[in-house]
Amino acid sequence: MTEVKAYAATSAASGLTPSTIERREPGAHDVEIAIEFCGLCHSDVHAIRSEWGPAKYPLVPGHEIVGTVSRIGGSVEGFTVGQRVGVGCMVDSCRECDSCLEGFEQYCEAGNIGTYGVVDRRNGGGITQGGYSQGIVVDENYVLTIPEGMDPAAAAPLLCAGVTTFSPLSYLDVQEGDKVGVVGLGGLGHMAVKIAKALGATVTVFTTSPGKESAAKALGADAVVVSSDAAQMDAVKGTLNAILDTVAAVHNINDYLRTLDRDGALIQLGLPSAAMPPVEPGLLIRKRLAYGGSLIGGIAETQEMLDFCAEHGIASDIEMVAAPDLDQAYDRMVAGDVKYRFVLDASTI
């Protein structure tokens, strides 16, 4: 085992404090990564504060990891020491169920093994610990290649926010000329705008904040609708082909379903911590609408997303954070005070 420095939560109220954790020695198919950067995701906040259920403490969060390969196992193919790589939201899965075999490891029927906070069934049964640390060891099948020339810090949030928005746009087969709505302009929303525009879509951003119009258009949005303004919402009824809803607060989905044209779809990406108002079936039935959800992306799809973003010059808009300032960054995330993702500089751990 190798000891590395990290920042961990020891209880729901402890915040993040300096810690030391153990990483396994690389096995035959393992890649050891010296972490350079790790994105801060709002789900990290929910996890360490036990807002999605009791967490297993001590807990090192972080599932948007970019670093360089420091060691490889004897049977590893496709990775070399010094290569820049990434690790996203999962580090393993059963590899046997239909979802895994079809490249949808995020929907593993046995449950995918998250990068932090879950039992690592294949490697001794310990609790996985994430990227707010100096290093990590991951099976080669769950390691991504960061394309040459991509800013490694700005690439980190792509491993969650990027693929979470890319995957449903791919699933919906969004193409040039389609009309896509994006609800919310945070970490997920700003990536949804960029990726949908790169696919050739006309993008409408829905926001509760009138002051975000200039920011949305700077990201590439073609139109901005203040969702609390009934007249603005009425003006876009029946005009959109697809909507990505990135909002994690409780809100009324029906308002956005009314903006879809026949055969449109609304995909839920944000996960509110309380019950949402019920969906009105009549809205779905009268226009053959679909309301669904989507969870991150598979490994191959995540690599496809990274390559797509590199080809189109897409990266996350970030603000760098030093390790001692993580708690302050969390408070700012909760307050919506970031444009649009924080990234931890692991050299400050």
Task: Briefly summarize what is shown.
By secondary structure, this protein is an alpha/beta fold. Helix content is 24%, strand content 26%. The mean pLDDT is 96.
What topology does this entry show?
Blueprint: E1 2-8, E2 17-23, E3 30-39, H1 42-48, E4 65-72, E5 84-87, E6 90-92, H2 98-101, E7 113-114, E8 135-139, E9 144-145, H3 152-155, H4 161-171, E10 179-183, H5 187-198, E11 202-207, H6 213-219, E12 223-226, H7 230-235, E13 240-245, H8 254-257, E14 260-268, H9 281-287, E15 290-293, H10 299-312, E16 318-321, H11 326-334, E17 341-345
Parallel strand pairs: 10-11, 10-13, 11-12, 13-14, 14-15, 16-17
Antiparallel strand pairs: 1-2, 3-4, 3-8, 3-17, 4-5, 5-9, 6-7
Kindly describe this structure:
With 349 residues, the chain is an alpha/beta fold. The protein has two domains: 210 residues, Quinone Oxidoreductase, Chain A, domain 1; 132 residues, Rossmann fold (3-Layer(aba) Sandwich), CATH 3.40.50. The chain has eleven helices and 17 strands. The strands form four sheets. Strands 3, 4, 5, 8, 9, 16 and 17 form a seven-stranded mixed β-sheet that branches. A six-stranded parallel β-sheet has the order 12-11-10-13-14-15. α8 links the parallel β13 and β14. The longest helix has 14 residues. The mean pLDDT is 96.
**What percent of the residues sit in helical stretches (DSSP H or I)?**
10-25%
Order of helices and strands: EEEHEEEHEEEHHEHEHEHEHEHEHEHE
Helix/strand-derived category reads alpha/beta
Mean of all residue-level pLDDT scores = 96
Morphology call: globular
